[in-house]
Design goal:
Elements: H1 2-8, H2 13-25, H3 29-42, H4 49-63
């Protein structure tokens, strides 16, 4: 649903942020990272970028397999 809304309104920053947050939350890290790259390209000075990067990185760590050493 978010992706189809994005297709109808590609300049909507809030939709991009929602796509990043949603995909990170459900464990779709690659998708979240792609949307994050798109936001960074469109708005490199966006104040939310660092927080969103941290969110994507954190979601990767939560679902990463444990290192049994």
């Amino acid at each position: 649903m978010l992706e189809s809304a994005r297709g109808r309104d590609p300049a909507n920053r809030d939709l991009l942020v929602a796509l990043i947050q949603y995909n990170a939350k459900v464990g779709k890290h690659d998708a979240a990272a792609c949307w994050l790259e798109e936001l960074a390209a469109a708005a490199p000075d966006d104040p939310a970028l660092e927080q969103l990067r941290a969110l994507v990185d954190q979601s990767r760590q939560v679902t990463a397999p444990a290192d049994d050493g």
